[in-house]
Design a protein that fits this description.
By secondary structure, the chain is of the alpha/beta class. The chain has two domains: about 140 residues, no CATH class; about 240 residues, Metallo-dependent phosphatases (Purple Acid Phosphatase, chain A, domain 2). The protein is about 45% helix and about 15% strand. The strands form two sheets. A six-stranded mixed β-sheet has the order 1-12-2-3-4-5, covered by helices on one side. A six-stranded mixed β-sheet has the order 6-7-8-9-11-10. The two termini are about 45 Å apart.
Length: about 400
Amino acid sequence: MPPVLRFVLVLTIGLTLVVGTHLYLYRRFVRDVFADRRQRRVGGAVLALLALLLVLGLPGSRVLPRAAGEVVGFLAFGWMGVIAVTVPLLFLVDLLRVPYVRWRQRRDDAEGPAPADPGRRVAISRGVAAVTALGAGTTSAAGFKSAFAAPELREIEVPLGVPAGLRGLRIVQITDVHVGPTIGRAFMDDLVDRINALDADVVAITGDLVDGTVRRLGPHTEPLGRITSRLGTFFVTGNHEYYSGADPWIAELTRLGIKVLRNERVTVERGGAKLDIAGVDDWRAEGFGGDHGHFPDKALGGRPTDRPVVLLAHQPKSVFDAARHGVDLVLSGHTHGGQIWPFAAIVKLVQPYVKGLYRHDEKTWIYVHPGTGYWGPPMRVGVPAEIAVLTLT
């Protein structure tokens, strides 16, 4: 799909979602709760302003001066997160009301309709709104707290059956940091300090590092140049690099001393044993033109089969091509583990794995990292951010 058509499609879907969700919130939290017209007008105006905050604030956070962009970004993305929690919860409550409504209809059919009681109906609507708001508010607060906390350190042993020289090799993986309107230099300084304390043989960055241009975000990614690892630091593109200008970012990361794997592989050695580290462009890179594209055959074809290989691929669906080439371990991200419940179920519809370590077949393992930062809402519900340390055994 041409980029212009893709942009129009995404914009149309986005505006439809914004309008639809705010109308739903108006109906449940304003129209059904307040009988007074003035109160309804005030509630409607507040929701209209919040909808406008989303429409203008999300792009505005990328073009305003950094200080102003952070404030606008936190407000706009924060409201997006509250919606992401509230609407599914409200929909669930509405589903639970269906049996009661049907029971009332059957009773009315059998006994005749009961006298209308507007006060009772409003009281029920207010109770539903209050319970939903309490649940959504509590969940949102926990989600904000989780997102602002430092990423958790997760240690994973991967039983690949590697040669003796590679046993105990430590790969530190970060992914989906999304440096952008609400994640900046302070976060990256702390992240690099924590990576350097982990005694890594290899550092793998599996895409979606940034949400913005090199000109705007370069100073915030500068700490990556301080990463230390024995055998190298490697990067592959994610879809958000292509939204942000992939070629300038590839050049910038190369300048910082990070090896960008573009459908290629390199060989590293430890304890007299060799390991191939391969990387592919994002699954949808080909649609952005140039020499970009997801070409696993180029990265893995013709390699010696007597040594293990680790493939860095942003999207978990690359595991099928990896298995075809006998890859030992795939390191992916992209899914954020769902980031906010219940979106893991939606992610599962388009990705084979959502979060964690899986044995795909007899040869190939995959680790799907839930992300080191967050995208959009500064919120994580039930899926904390992490720095993963994978030890080969």
